[in-house]
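4.2 Preliminary Data

To establish feasibility before requesting continued support, the project team ran the inverse folding procedure on a target of 345 residues. The structure was first converted into the token representation described in Section 3, and no sequence information of any kind was made available to the design step. The complete token record follows.
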């Protein structure tokens, strides 16, 4: 039986794909200067980082992938077998993605273990995480620290430049923990957002929670507004920022009806558009429909007309006309140039 001192436990995951382009982020500037990143820009390339964090020595093994699939997991297993050839057993822990639990991967591990002892190589054991339990994957916190250190507020000239920065980050990080041994836990590298430890309450990703918000009914049309909202939490779990985004949809039905469920489904599609844009940039989403930005009652009416198309589809013409007349005046008075672009769903 392998002793605990001769075992290695790895937290494994992929970071990306992410586009190499000018990224927004926090920046120390003089008063009066407002840093910004172009909203529309051409991506210089795309990267997928595959990495494994060894918990006892706090060392990261990483490489770059062209896709997320079983072949890359086999490649990672072989890389760890080579680097930790003197270990007795390597435990591989990752989330419940399909390529992490495929028959091809299981067959590779079974075939390796069948000859491992005879060839004096480490055994491989899987320790998969439950579905929807990314907060248990410790390496997510390392990815968060890396992103804040070298990706946020960056503008690398090429994919190679971005890869060099990532390589340098992990090299310096590994050297730091070789010189100052420390098991993975609490703060890793000093830049992680949350403690790197197993905890049911630990979410290592950015603490931004998106949801569909049902707002109070309009007192005139009796229609219910639905929209997308985000809460940003601080380190104590309290809401530090809250904002709405995207299109507001009005309906006289609630989520218990078929039309109400279609409204919610449309908002989910809207959020998926935003998510793809944040992850992959402009090339990952369809071209948006541009709307006029000139301040006028007509343009305000056009914006409300396109956002309330669902209400019109319900056939309640009287409620639709009354809501549009009221909201057009209110919108033109309060928010005459709020939206500069919108996506045609």
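Position-by-position output of the design step:
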């Amino acid at each position: 039986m392998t002793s605990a001192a001769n075992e290695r436990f790895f937290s494994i995951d992929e970071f990306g794909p992410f586009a190499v382009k000018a990224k927004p982020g926090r920046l120390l500037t003089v008063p009066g200067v407002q840093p910004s990143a172009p909203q529309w820009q051409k991506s210089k390339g795309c990267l997928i980082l595959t990495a494994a964090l060894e918990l006892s020595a706090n060392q990261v093994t990483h490489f770059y992938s062209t896709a997320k699939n079983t072949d890359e997991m086999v490649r990672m297993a072989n890389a760890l077998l080579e680097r930790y050839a003197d270990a007795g057993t390597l435990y591989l822990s990752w989330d419940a993605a399909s390529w992490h639990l495929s028959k091809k991967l299981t067959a590779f591990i079974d075939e390796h273990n069948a000859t491992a002892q005879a060839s004096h190589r480490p055994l491989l054991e899987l320790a998969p995480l439950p579905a929807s339990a990314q907060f248990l994957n410790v390496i997510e916190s390392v990815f968060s620290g890396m992103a804040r250190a070298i990706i946020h507020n960056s503008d690398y000239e090429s994919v190679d430049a971005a890869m060099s920065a990532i390589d340098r980050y992990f090299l310096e990080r590994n050297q730091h923990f070789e010189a100052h041994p420390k098991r993975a836990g609490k703060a890793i590298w000093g830049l992680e957002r949350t403690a790197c430890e197993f905890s049911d309450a630990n979410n290592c990703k950015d603490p931004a929670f998106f949801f569909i918000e049902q707002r109070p009914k309009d007192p005139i049309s009796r229609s219910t507004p639905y929209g997308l909202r985000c809460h940003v939490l601080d380190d104590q779990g309290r809401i530090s920022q809250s904002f709405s985004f995207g299109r507001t949809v009005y309906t006289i039905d609630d989520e218990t009806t078929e039309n109400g469920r279609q409204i919610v489904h449309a908002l989910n599609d809207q959020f998926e558009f935003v998510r793809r844009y944040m992850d992959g940039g402009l090339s990952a989403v369809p071209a948006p429909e541009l709307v006029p930005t000139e301040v006028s009652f007509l343009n305000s009416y056009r914006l409300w007309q396109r956002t309330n198309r669902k209400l019109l589809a319900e056939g309640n013409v009287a409620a639709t006309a009354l809501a549009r007349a009221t909201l057009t005046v209110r919108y033109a008075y309060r928010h005459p140039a709020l939206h500069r672009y919108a996506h045609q769903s």
